Structures are given as structure tokens and as C-alpha cells.
Amino acid sequence: MIAVAAPRVGARAAGLLGRADAHDQAPAVDRVMRRLGLSIGAGGVIMGLADVPEIAEQARFAPAWWSPVTAVLAFGLFPVLAIASIRLRPSMIRRVSSGAAVAYLAAVVAMPVGLDTHSVGAGSVWLYRMLPLGVLAAALAWPIVVSVGYLVIGSAAVALTNIYLTEEFTALSVSSAFARSMGLSALFLWCVVSARSAAARVDRESAEAGRQAAEAAAAAARDAERSRFAALIHDAVLSTLLDASRAQPSDVLRRQAERTLRRLDEIRVESAAPDVLDARAAVTFLRASVHEVNAGIRFATRTWPGFDDLRMPAAAAHTLAAALAEAARNSLRHASVPDRPVTRTVTCTISAGGIRVVFADDGAGFDVDTISADRLGISVSILGRMRRLAGGAGFVESQPGEGTTVTLVWGGDGAH
Question: How many structural domains are present in the chain?
């Protein structure tokens, strides 16, 4: 992997790069996908083990190669799916699940190749009952339209193949076998589609709630500041001017004027001091900056114990948000890949001493050695910003065809 780095890193930022027992607050879509993938993968393993006796029994009617090949095609990727659901990112889970769905259909196609007509002395071949596994894998990997198409094609394939191997071909037998295979599988398909839709709705509503909360907090802060200034003007400035217009100068009036001037000076000092964001406000601000570019980019948060102690100057948050937004815009402009969607995610990791934001896509990627210094999006808007930020650092990693990862790090100096 090739990397370009802005070298200035705050002392506390380095700790963010180590391993931690982080609490993952990934989007609901990702969490549901992982749980479904783990359940489907484990179910495939269990069903494969439970069918071993029947596979061995029906292997007597087929060449020696047929049963091992079809068993590996039908079940081989399900343990991989279970492991991927624990360890890998959602795009990889979808790929493994897609492979499992396609492999099951390949196993069904291989059945007539290895077996003769009506050669299986049983009510059905063992693959006939495994269609729900393939449909579950398809529903996890693909959009609903493609999954429904898979359901119809798979049901027709297993019904025709089962009749070819076990019974006489009639209209009644075909329709009955098709209805049985499709009915149960359709129920499983509906369950997965409903779970994914509900998770997507939760993410949309959470993002909207976060946006509304941020707007409400900003409005409340403006109202509070406006009320504070109004009270100062009324209680101090206007009162002093009114007393001055009604009486001759006196020591009491002079002291009142001095107090008013001191309060005005204090307000100026407070206004000049940088605002400071806590951990939750910083995350809300960063999420909003990404979703202003594209609301479809997933934003996950991970926290270390003590993250509530983080205090981040607003200027640093603005710089980090600007660099992150530029990374998102660059990805939308340059990372597109023909014939497939590009997955874009942001992972924000927070500790008491700093914050790390990782923007990643699985798009086209590029060779960073071919990027000239006058490529402003990377050299100025991302790395340059982070280089000028005290305690900040930026890294860009990419290879052609491997996607791009932009890492932005800020570490506090202990002043906040």
C-alpha cells in the first residue's frame, strides 16, 4: 500500500492508532447485515452437517465426483459467510453471500449431469430442500428485485431437477414441486428484506434526528447568546446612559460606568476565545459535514473509555470537517466503477485525548505517485489543511482497483 502523509501529529493522537476495546456504534444496516450473515452462515453449516447421511445415501446413485462437488458448491461458502460477518466489512459480506447464492444454483445445475433420470430412490434429492439457504444468501447480497428473480429461477430449477430425478413428469407434479419450493423460500426472503428495510429506516430516522438535534442546539445557543446580550444592554448600558442623562456626574455614576465598561470588555474577551466542542458535538458536526456532501455515506462512531473528556476547539473541528468533506467529494468525483455501486463509509474513533476519522471507499482507487502536487483536492484541501492544523495529520492510501482510504487525526495538547 502506498501512502502520502502530513507528518505533524499531536502527542496524544498516536494513541488512537493502537488497538482498543471500542464500543462500535455502526449504522443499523451494517449491524443487521452482520447478524443476518452470521445466522445464515451458521444455518448453512448446520443444515450441511444434518444432511450428511442423506448425501451419503444418494451418492450411491451417482459418480464418485458428484456428491463431493455438489456438497462443496451448496455449503462451502456458508462457514466463510459466518466468519466474514464477524471480521470483514459489509461490502465483503455481500460478496461472500452473493457467491454462496450463485454456488447453490451451480450445484442444482450439476445434478442432472451426474445422475440419470429417475435414478434417485427417494421422495426428493437432498438439494431440493436447500433452496431457502440460497434465497437467504441472495436476499442478503442483492436488491429485492434481483432476489425475487433468484427465487423464481431457483424454485423452477430445483422443481424441474427434482422431478427429473425422482418421479414422472406431469403438469401437476411440476406445479406442486414449484409451489412447495417457492412458498417456504418466499417467506424467508420476506423476512430478510423486511429486516434490511427496517434497518435502513432506522438509519434515516437517526440521521434526521441528529440533524434536527444539532439545529435545535444551535438555535438554543443563539437564543441564549442573544438573551445574554439583551440583558447586558438593558441592565448595564442603557441604565448607565439613563442615569447619566438625569443627573450630574458623580462618583456613583462613574463607578457604574466603569462596571459597565468592564462587563463589555469581558464580553469581548469571551467572544474572542475559541468555542470548544465536546465529543458528541464534534461527532454531530463531522457527521453533518459528510451528509451535506452525500446523505448516503455511512457514518459509524467508535469510542474509547473516557471519550466524554474530549474537548475540541471549534476551529480544529471546522478544519477536520472541511478535509473530510473534501475526501467525500473527491470519492464521488473520481471513485466510480462501471457496473457496480461504490460503498463509502466514515469511521470516527474518539478518545479523551483526540479523534481519528477514516473515510474509505471500495472504488476505482489510484496510484498516488501519479498525483501531481498541484492536485489541490488532495495536496491542499486535505493534506494541506491537516498539516497546518496544530496536532493534526492526514494520510491518503490507495491503489488502482483497491479503493481509497483517507485518515485524518487530531490530538489535543492538554489545554482543553
Answer: 2
Q: Are 293 and 325 in contact (CB under 8 A)?
A: yes
DSSP string, 200-221: HHHHHHHHHHHHHHHHHHHHHH
Is there a domain that residue 103 lies in? yes
Distances (CA, A) of 199 to 26, 69, 260, 333, 356: 11, 37, 56, 28, 26
Q: What contacts 347, CB < 8 A, 6 or more positions away?
A: 300, 301, 302, 357, 358, 360
End residue of a domain, out of 185, 210, 235: 210
- CA–CA–CA angle 246, 249, 250 (5° rounding): 115
CA dihedral 372, 373, 379, 385 (to 10 degrees): -170
**Both 46 and 130 in a single domain?**
yes
Kindly give the parts of the chain with pLDDT less than 70.
1-26, 114, 116-124, 167, 210, 214, 217, 221, 224-225, 227-228, 231-232, 234-236, 239-240, 243-244, 246-254, 256, 260, 262-274, 371-377, 413-416
Full residue range of the structural domain in which residue 325 is found: 276-410
- 235: in domain: no
In a domain, 10, yes or no: no
Out of 181, 210, 239, pick the residue that ends a domain. Answer: 210
Q: Are residues 179 and 90 in the same domain?
A: yes
* Run of H or E including 311: strand 311-313
Task: Please state, in angstroms and rounded to a whole number, the distance separating the CA atoms of residues 388 and 394.
Answer: 10
Nearest to 181 by CA among 153, 203, 209: 153
| Beta partners for residue 24, in sequence order | 302
Same structural domain for residues 280 and 397? yes
Asked whether residue 267 is assigned to any structural domain, the reply reads no
Name residues whose C-beta falls within 8 Å of residue 11's C-beta, 6 or more positions apart in sequence. Answer: 391, 411, 413
User: Domain containing 352 — which CATH number?
Assistant: 3.30.565.10
Residue 197's H or E segment, with its range, is helix 171-232
As given in the structure block, the three cell numbers for residue 39 are 445466522
d(CA 134, CA 148): 12
User: 163 and 291 in one domain?
Assistant: no
- Same domain flag for 288 and 397: yes
Count of CB atoms within 10 A of residue 94's CB? 18
Q: Could you give the CA distance from residue 234 to residue 236 in angstroms, rounded to a whole number?
A: 6
pLDDT of residue 415: 42
Q: How far apart (Å, rounded) are the C-alpha atoms in residues 405 and 327?
A: 9
